[in-house]
Amino acid sequence: MVTYRDAGVDIYKEDRVIRALISQITFKRNDSFKPCEELIGHYAGAIEFGDYYLVLCTDGVGSKMVVAKMANRYDTVAIDMIAMNVNDAISIGAEPVALVDYIAVEDIDENIARQIGKGLNEGLKEANISLIGGETATLPDIVKGIDIAGTVLAVVRRDKVITGRDIKKGDVIVGLRSSGIHSNGLSLARKVFFEIGNMDIHHELPHGKTVGEELLTPTRIYVKPVLEMIKKVKVKGLAHITGGGFRKLRRLKKDVVYLIDNLPEPHPIFNEIQRVGNVPDEEMFRTFNMGIGFCVIVDKKDSEKVIEIANHHNIPAYVIGKVLKEVEIGDEVIKNKVVVKYKNKYIVIE
């Protein structure tokens, strides 16, 4: 039995480290460009800019770069970097408009650069944003391999920002299908396949794909369908399901229970990770997206329209759960948590 912590990633320790870092930061600009207090701790930060918020997100590819190096394939990883940023930006209702990137390398050749550029172009097109600058640094004493990160600028009218404040009991959670593992949990997946399973990048899994193909499938970009949903229905909450899985819903309204009780079958990659690594159900849901890469919370009457828009963009979507004030599990009353019903048992995600 293996956990994310065994693979070197402790999400609860990361939470404590972030709190420790933030506790030392007290300065805030307090003029016409002051930050939006309501968005602190949300998916994206913002500053006031007249009638708008200017929104910033920053993220990288993570240890998926290790898999890219193993496969000597770099043409998809920049899509992941862009996806991780723009999917966060749209989670507050903002429209992404521009990207600056940062590529840190031990050493790089022109072929790898072309591959990265190809992925950048694909991601930019899918997210409908422009690359307006960046930096490439050769750091052989610091970086072993390649790391790619970026920062996205997005905009939203101040009266249109979506924080989750309007979420209420009876609302439904629409889940948008992920393309696969996306860019989170790769440390655990690599430990399971390459150490416990003693596989290599070319090992064919029972469902016909290789380990490399599965782990390098790029993160789905949800910009176009989600922005269309925001225009056509009253969207109350948006959640990008990344590291920590459905815990991410708690970045929205906190005094409710998010009950996930109608999940579609997870992608085969998740079943294989669980089988090979003997990973507990609870750990799977704390680490991976389990087939749902993005959640949209709306009034029940609007759920069909949200699903219709997602399907129009070739993204399967489903009502996967609901918002409640509390959930009774046996003799215990659960409040202010995320609860997943899976394989006829309830998993409380702390």
From TrEMBL:
Pathway: Purine metabolism; IMP biosynthesis via de novo pathway; 5-amino-1-(5-phospho-D-ribosyl)imidazole from N(2)-formyl-N(1)-(5-phospho-D-ribosyl)glycinamide: step 2/2
Swiss-Prot/TrEMBL GO biological process terms: 'de novo' IMP biosynthetic process; adenine biosynthetic process
Keywords, comma-separated and alphabetical: ATP-binding, Cytoplasm, Ligase, Nucleotide-binding, Purine biosynthesis
Enzyme class: ligase
Domain PurM-like C-terminal: 168-327
Any one of the GO CC terms: cytosol
Catalysed reactions, as listed in the record: 2-formamido-N(1)-(5-O-phospho-beta-D-ribosyl)acetamidine + ATP = 5-amino-1-(5-phospho-beta-D-ribosyl)imidazole + ADP + phosphate + H(+)
Subcellular location: Cytoplasm
Domain PurM-like N-terminal, residue spans: 43-156
GO molecular-function term, one example from the UniProt record: ATP binding
Gene3D superfamilies: PurM-like C-terminal domain, PurM-like, N-terminal domain
Family statement drawn from the similarity comment of this UniProt entry: Belongs to the AIR synthase family.
NCBIfam families: purM (TIGR00878)
Name the UniProt record assigns to this protein: Phosphoribosylformylglycinamidine cyclo-ligase
